[in-house]
TrEMBL record:
UniProt name for this protein: Methylenetetrahydrofolate--tRNA-(uracil-5-)-methyltransferase TrmFO
UniProt xrefs under Pfam families: GIDA
Species for this entry: Litorivita pollutaquae
Domain MnmG N-terminal: 5-374
Source organism, top-level taxon: Bacteria
Keyword NAD: yes
Chain sites annotated for binding FAD: G9, G10, G11, M12, A13, G14
Gene: trmFO
Cell compartment(s), UniProt: Cytoplasm
Keywords: Cytoplasm, FAD, Flavoprotein, Methyltransferase, NAD, NADP, Transferase, tRNA processing
Amino acid sequence: MENTLHIIGGGMAGSEAAWQAAQLGVKVIIHEMRPAVETFAHQTGNLAEMVCSNSFRSDDSEQNAVGLLHWEMRAAGGIIMASADKHRLPAGGALAVDREPFAQWVNDTLHAHPNVTVEYGEITALPEDGHWIIATGPLTSSALGAAIAQETGADALAFFDAIAPIVYAESINMDVAWMQSRYDKGETEEEQKAYLNCPMSKAQYEAFIDALLAADKTEFHEGETAGYFDGCLPIEVMAERGRETLRFGPMKPVGLTNTHKPDEKAYAVVQLRRDNALGTLLNIVGFQTKMKYGAQTEVLRMIPGLEEARFARLGGIHRNTFLNSPTLLDDQMRLKSRPNIRFAGQITGVEGYVESAAMGLLAGRLAAAEIQGRTIETAPQNSAMGALIHHITGGAEAKTFQPMNVNFGLFAPLEDSGIKGGRRGRKDRYKAYTDRAKGEFNQWLEAQS
Ligand SMILES: Cc1cc2nc3c(=O)[nH]c(=O)nc-3n(C[C@H](O)[C@H](O)[C@H](O)COP(=O)(O)OP(=O)(O)OC[C@H]3O[C@@H](n4cnc5c(N)ncnc54)[C@H](O)[C@@H]3O)c2cc1C
């Protein structure tokens, strides 16, 4: 097999993957379709263009999971963080960047690298041999999307995300909510208690519907298809179809007995289900929504039991091409059915510039090692990068898999830390998570040098 690494897509992930591999001495060809073939969101022909906001979110590496991911990417000599630091704008604790010079610098630095070649043109078919990384992002061109779907099966490649909000389990008031599957279905006790239920009275339900109807919503961008699939209608669209629609849909109160008030029949029930193997994250079942983030938090906290809820991610529906990675990829990010092809970036089912670039960084290092005949482990599970890769290639529920931001809910709990639970212990817990992550990430980097 030839020793060149081919990368399809020179966005956040593809640029970072190319840089990592090139820095390790591997010849890289980036295949980028822009500017000849455009997407509805990109405006230039530059590599690593930011398609929307100019923020890389929190830069706090002690108390924030995305800040920790910044730290790890800096430690690994990432080009995306180097450019972000060079083109930083004042934004409090957040890392905001001057978008045009940011992308221009990544573009020029990669073009100038002796190991990197950029070839412009759309790739429309899956490569038969050679070493490849597909990093074509949420707006993968339709021809390539069709070729991927043919390989993976149509069910395993989504063209939209329909994200239900995800809540940190520890932030739910269990004096109000209770665990029970409808009609206690299931063989084991775990299955019979697979759902967390939040009950609503008639007055609470009516107020909730009013708030849903009044909430600010986002619209699809031009060029995005606004046709919803009936299986994943946003809750506000269901409410618009009739005030009772939700009560006969995801909020139906049947088959459930409130363990706190066994004699009281709920008028409606909101159900949450485990979103990761650790059980630290729960998604609100059937609650995909296009409410704006501010409105969404307000409306969702009207749900009894969720008054103090903290959200690992809010809901949304977007044009987004992504794989069912838990079933399709191995932990080296290779397509199980064609191991000469890796995937990286948002198409793997992570969400956000930073997460996408981080998955590019990892794929670039893993591919370079393979080409050079070295074996490296994937990033350690207790690091932010590792928590993400373990989530998308194994920890996430494959059946309900939707794109994920990095967050502390993906981290394995601390053993015997002696740190208090709840809000008071949170600061110490996050510091302990990030200390543990930094130590393990550094060890992982050292093992490669
Ligand atoms: C409209 C929109 C707004 C977003 N806003 C934000 C935001 O504000 N903040 C945030 O953190 N995240 C945002 N995201 C999510 C996501 O993090 C970014 O899209 C991010 O750029 C993903 O990185 P990526 O490398 O996976 O994909 P991209 O950065 O999109 O890079 C993929 C590249 O592949 C190229 N390509 C596609 N198909 C082919 C092909 N067949 N052949 C050759 N090249 C191809 C594309 O031209 C592109 O350059 C947004 C996404 C979208 C769609």
